[in-house]
User: Fold this.
Amino acid sequence: MKWITARRRHPLAGYVVVLLALAVFGVGYAMVAPSADRAEAQVMAAAQTGAEPADGENAVDISQGRDIWERSCASCHGLNGGGSDNAPDITGAGGAAVDFQVSTGRMPSSNPDAQMPRKEPAWNREEIDNLIAFYEEEIGQGAGPAVPEEPPGDEPVRADYEDEDAYKEAKAEYDKAYDAYIDGASDTEAGMQLYLANCAHCHSWSGAGGGLTGGHWAPEIGDATPRQLYEAMLTGPGQMPVFTEGTITPEDKQELISYVKTLQAEPNAGGIFDLNRVGQVAEGFIAWTVGLTLIIACAIWITAKQRAHD
Amino acid sequence: MSTTTQAPKALRGVGNWIDDRFHLAKTGEKNLRKVFPNHWSFMLGEIALYSFIILLVTGVFLTLWFNPSMAHTTYEGSYQRLNGVQMSEAYESTLRIDFDVRGGFLVRQIHHWAALIFVASLVAHMLRVFFTGAFRKPREINWLIGVGIFTLAMLEGLFGYSLPDDLPSGMGVRILQGVMLSLPVVGTYVSMFLFGGEFPGEDIIPRLYMLHILLIPGILLALIAAHFMILWHQKHTQYPGTGRSEKKVVGTPMFPGFAVKAGGFFFFVFAVIVGLSAFVQINPIHLFGPFTPTAITSGLQPDWYMGFMEGSLRIFPNWLDFQVFGYAVPIGVLVPGLVIPGIIFGGLAAWPFLEQWITGDKRVHNVADRPRNAPVRTAVGVAGVVFYGILWLAGANDILSHTFSISLYWTTYFFRVTAIVGPIIGFIVAKRICLGLQRRDLETLEHGYESGTIQQLPSGEFIEVHKESSQDTVHVLESKTAVDRIDDEAIASVEESESDGVEAPAARGLKGRLRAKLAHWYTKDNVSFEGVEAHTGHHLHHGAGHEEHEEMAGSH
Assistant:
């Protein structure tokens, strides 16, 4: 207390108090406010009670898929996928759309009126596969694009494997497929031209995303797997246009995805602080707040002391 | 320097030899003893000078390898990712500087960071000069030169940004061309002339290169030299204080004190810029890729100093566009792209003359104003800063929208409203703060400062003891001259009596009446310090009557 008493009349004390109060309220609000993730956790908890993982690696359990559908999808999209006031008709969306929406965590949505950010998926790979199988069997019935098999999808998760070796094996296999797909594209220029002409004006040159009209935004695409990128092009989620296999051929899609992933993997040659590749706004901000501020602080320092005989 | 010790004989010999021929000793001594006032805000212009020197040195280094050509080539260098990609030789040679020239990447980053710091320090320096009234007679010409340097520095930066022919370069040039095209009648001709044909053509990079490394730096150097010669001749302004007057400068002599400080300061500026360049990535052109006319991306802006123009283009509505005989007059580009920057720079250039005309103050000023003592000027400055700042933020509206999850359209509406309302609020708030500070100054001057000591009088009541301010504080407070409050009625009455009741010629006519109105507006709210003498207020005298203490209590 003595420490505070001695300093409470300091000229900066008021600012410190205001900053502390702001920090307390800001952090406090962030802790208390309902977030999409929290709402999702409740959905997940509800879903998980009924969904036991099926046995066998490749066995598709349509009944589990139906279970997930009825618990977590049907309330908005309808039992037959015909949609409702809250959600669109998805009978023609295709397995690729289901895989994209669910594996990126955008569905199930906690707020049908808002654009959903990417988050942890509510189910593991196997459960999602079961859901897709159920969807294609009973809801989509072959309409719309199917899940593209060639581009690698989600990375294996340790929790889905019983022991470390099985996980490592699956991971190695995945990495091999991933590298084969990315390296299979050799024409950097084609990928770059396609990306910069078709994608960059929303997702930005670096894939960091950007604002769109009407309160929507183009998401950051760095976390997306090659398969999710491919599915997004095939199905055009949200505001995104559809790039069919005719518009951009599978080979060109591979070039494009390879360009995105290679650019993303680039190290930052210009220093350890990459400013998140946000660009000139961040650079100008740093120039003023760090650069000029430091220099002016030095100017204050060297002119503050003046000796009598100077 | 001590005068008793003599220089070593060898040095004396050389010194005398030179002095016998050039008679430098006298001028040298005079200039070496030149006095520089000690205040950090007088160093802001030096930051600009030092970063300009850094720009020149690093720029020369870069020209050794940069190839300003738009000829097509296929990249086959050490940057693997872009191997086999078609690009211009300009972009290819920039990649070579980055990846194959030893130290090239660092030097290019130094060049870019120094450019950002250069323009930022110019702005800071100009704000200091503006708010302290250092542009007043006799320094109007140097202010104009400063505005010229600032404008050219922006252009220089824009052209330099365009040289590597990477993705943002091309987009910047495209916007530049769009603004040119919006000029009525001559727009297409101007564009065709600059680009040597259609956009982008093959000529633009070599032409911008010539402008960037020869013409504009040449003019900038000449202007900076003129700026310094005039400064040297006129001397610095200084802040009011003990021993300082319109005729007498107080500070550190050029040699050795100031030279050492300035030299050290150069190295500090250099260190900060190199530090930024070494650790913070700037303009990673190798990640952007080469420009092609079909490519376009979100999330890229011009460098910060062009941000306000980007912002004015982004928020200006397109409702006002019209056509004349089938030719479009794109007001939505013409006004934000040319008229608004014209108003900002024209306003900067015109202000000293405008203020002089309004106040009728034609005297020489070597003591800087405290911003509070010129409330309307300060308020106008703040309004300008707010306007510029809003446009600048609007230039980053997509980044703001995405970073803070705000709807993009709302940012546009918000900035449209605040671009008009913001400066007005800024003006009012700044002026009120200035006047409040003036009142406090008056109070401090009359009554001394509040010591924080509470005393109990024999009658039982409590008072706070006021103490006399230091001599220096009194000098500073008394620097507020009567001219800050031009009483236009008094002027008019004096002029009237001089001309036997006939209205003064200067106040006649539309212009005269406008001037009188503006002068009234400019000075009417100023708190008058006339006749106030330091520490004559009653609070210092404790025997004061009861009602006075009540008044004091009421005023706190």
